[in-house]
Amino acid sequence: MESTIQSAKKRDNTVNNAFASHFAKSMFLTVVGLAILVFIGTRMFTHIDLNLYGYMVGTITFLGGFFYRFISWGERPPTKIIIKKGLKLLFRKSTAKTAVSHLAIYDFIKKRGFYRWMQHILIGWGCVLACLVTFPLVFSWMYFNMDGNGYYTVVLMGVDLVRIKADGIIAWFSYNALNISAIMVITGVCMALYRRMKNMQARAEQKFMYDFLPLYMLLFISVTGLLLTVQNVFLHGWMQPQMSLIHQFSVIVTLIYLPFGKLAHIPFRPMSVLARNYREHYGEQHMKECKVCGDKFVSVEQSNDVIQVLGTNNMEFNMEDGFNLAELCLPCRRKYRIARFSGFATHQVKVKEANQNARG
Amino acid sequence: MVKKRLYLELENCIGCRSCLAACTQCGGHEQRNRNYVYDVNPLKNRQTMPLMCLHCVNPACARSCPAQAIQIHETGAVLSALVEKCIGCQNCTIACPYGIPKFDTEQNLMYKCDLCIDRTKDGIPPMCASVCPSNTLQWLTDEEIEAKQKQFNLDNGKWVTSMPYLEGETNVRVNLPGILQGVTKLF
Ligand code: SF4
Ligand code: SF4
Hints:
heterodimer; A: mainly alpha; Fumarate Reductase Cytochrome B subunit; two-stranded antiparallel ribbon; about 65% helix; B: alpha+beta; two-stranded antiparallel sheet; 7 strands; globular; metal-binding (chain B); ET_IronSulfur_Cluster-Binding (chain B)
């Protein structure tokens, strides 16, 4: 007994050690990477916009939370397998296509419902657009230089990129990108809130902290952001510094919250591409044949991985009939269960499983 | 609120498949049933038995999920995949010893029995037990299940409520009193 406790402790320790060093390493590398990028982008720190300092602190705190969550999550045996094998397969031909479908146009959400898909497009792309504008400005990877004769020079990573007319169309889009993204996010969030209030099912399931809080935070960010523009255009900048602080505060709070609540699915979602690659690659290599009916139902690799993961949880479904339950296709596994209940070998009867779908 | 469990007396099943139809109507099930009804010996007789998630105490599906998409409710119910977390790897379908989780390839999403959590968390029986006309599926307190045990007092000591006849401890209780008593009600 004593020895098991001790060995458990030991294992705990090594996990913790690995965890601490992983965390420190990722954090260190990222912050150094950011610093180098800022150094290059700002032409050796000559162009830092210190108004945006709060965002910088927010970003670093976010990274801390993110790595903390991601690494403790990645330590779980099934997650580890998918990450490790998925990353090795990252350069498959289909990766680009899967990534676009899963991460950019959200095909699978469209199949779950058009309304929810619309919400996702508006909120998702609104946020992406906003981040693409905000963070390069925060870290001074991009800034505008006024030439004095009606032209701006866009400087990207310290390199003069283009000269644009200060009242031209590109400039208009640049000034208004954040307004456009705010309107997208507000529309999407309102759609989501409407669904949550109208749809009885959504109402039964929702929790304030998990489902509403992130929506309100996004709304808060977008509205304060839009107000900044309103103050600028209509109120001659009245109370703008205060509002700017409030806006910064809302962004920072959201960044800190992001790795923990519902929004955590955003940084974790790319895993679905890894999972798809894993299934496709090993599926092409060698499929497992069901020990009862011979149907090919999953890759040998995945079947073995699952058996191994269950093993680490002290679950072994080895049957007296000489197979592991993970080696039976799903219909045969269900019939085998019926057989174990009734004592009659249902799974051996060569009849296809009856329709199990109530809708026909 | 008294804790109640799903209790199955498998051999009572008459194969009406009401439980499948009822399952589609539960809130959040989006018109798809998550349970099964099998013919025990389809070429010989008409005995059927339902099969559903047994809500394992240590659920293989949740342990094998890389995304922590399968949550265990405080009532012990093992929930369906969280839509925003499931990454579509299908580990859970391979891990479950009874082949319960279903997978929608188009939606890239696993779905399974959640014991009608928005009903059962308030003590309302799940859809399947609400409609079962043959008392195969019942929603009982532990005392009531114990009373059943007395009622089917088997002299051969064979009273099954799950263990050791399953792969692990489950929250759902399963029983086959007739078969174990040797009453030739079926087959
Ligand atoms: S019966 Fe299968 S699906 Fe249900 S909890 Fe157990 S492992 Fe999960
Ligand atoms: S299919 Fe979804 S719920 Fe099932 S193991 Fe994979 S991520 Fe988890």
